[in-house]
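re: ur question from yesterday

yeah so i grabbed the chain u mentioned. its 520 aa long if i counted rite. heres the sequnce exactly as i have it in my notes:
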Amino acid sequence: MKHLTKLWGTFQQVPLDINHLKLSSRIFIEKVSDPGGKAPPLYIGVNTLSGSIDLFNHKEGAYLEKLKCAHHVQDLSSIPENFLHSIKNRGYLFPNQEYENFVFDTIIHRYKCEKYSKDKILGFLAIDMGCPVKCKYCFEKKYLNHSDAFENSVMDDASIKAALNFLDLMKKLQHKEIDFVAGWGGEPLLEKNSALNERFIVLAREREMPVAYFSSLVTLGHKHYSILKKYADHMRFLQTTLDAVGKTHDALRNIPGAFEKTTHGIDLLLRANLPVIVRTNVGPHNINLVPALAAFYEEKGWFEFPKFKAFVVKVYDRYHDQEANHVFTEDEALSRWLELKDRFPAMRKMQTLKYAPALLPILKAFGIRESIDITQDNFEVETHPMVTYCHTGNRTEYVFTGAPHYSIYNCAECTGILEYKIGTYYPSLSFNHNQTKLWGVGRAFHNMRSIDTLKMCKTCLAATHCGGYCALEAIVAKGSANDIYCKKVYNVIPSFIKKESARLYTRGRMLMENLENWTL
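ran it thru and got these structure tokens back, copy pasting raw so excuse formatting
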């Protein structure tokens, strides 16, 4: 038995009584086989209660299979007691279901409290909701032609001050730090708003709030370039999007030459020592184009800039209106990504962000990332249960729009869509409690949307790898964030292990045998 991850709790005090013994209901046990067909199989245990991810040899795997099927005490007589003690101490065995539920609830409550206290606040200021780019997959697209449903607003000096003051208030009330305040939209970097953006940066700097921008960069002109360069030391990052090379990228935009304009902007910003993140939204429609994009970044020399990052993000369908060929399941997305990384080394310099969060603990456990040293006898990586899905569920995301509505939202992915606003922040602060109830928010922003508050999640095998999924998608599909739109992660985990059986077996054999310094 090889331990790959640290535990989320301590299980040594759980009693082991052969007469009252059950395998945890929150475990995946999957067999992976030698791709050459010569060696015996290995077994992978993914314990979603304890955080334990373990490797078992074929004999230990047979014991686990027997435990899964055992109905009588005598069925366990052939299983060594020391093995039972070992897996009990990893959170696999409990006296009964009630005991298991008690332990699970206690662990989740502890991590929930820690998450609430440690998560930082994100602020998004929609400087200008006008956007000339109109990406075809943008969540705003179906609302843009309905002026009564969508805000076409621009912020001003007074509303920016009010938004930052609100964030300062929440910082003090929630005892949290501000991670960043972002220029958002629409498109924040329209040249007509250059003075407004400089004012935003100055006001944020006075409050010691790091500044970020999310922009297509297609409208980046000399005025904004000069401002960003002037305040480079106060910039957390500037994020833009490239989905393919050249005209293929342009086909997803509403502006001719968008690719050339965006890449020119990236060049300027990197050479001005500004931190740039390039995000690629990946689905079945474009994943095979990502190797060419990685090669383009290499050719441009961007990977050599210490402040450059390339992120790959899976396309999500929050409003259930994407074309089918734009959306992967997590296991499909990750398998395709790993396959391409095997074939195209430049892609190893790209990072994934919220690409397959349910599978991230398995990736960490098996070292499916950069070269690592695995010679330590008790090599274990640290993972955490997903008690909430995102900052919205943790009540630490706030979005602000300008005149005439001066709306406040608690999810950036519905900015400007009036039916999802939770209140106004200017000229005075006011919340619509029917709307906050829709989002599962109480009168105080402290009741997290988490797996211990969502009925379907409480007994779900995979809840700690899912976090209750997206609140916005639950509202779209079910009418309330107090419900869930289930992504069936309990199928995603075993499906991924089966798809990647050969890879995981090879990695697992190396880990079991303490080989060192292997690379993807």
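noticed a couple things. The chain has a mean pLDDT of 90. also Residues 242-355 form one domain.
anyway ttyl
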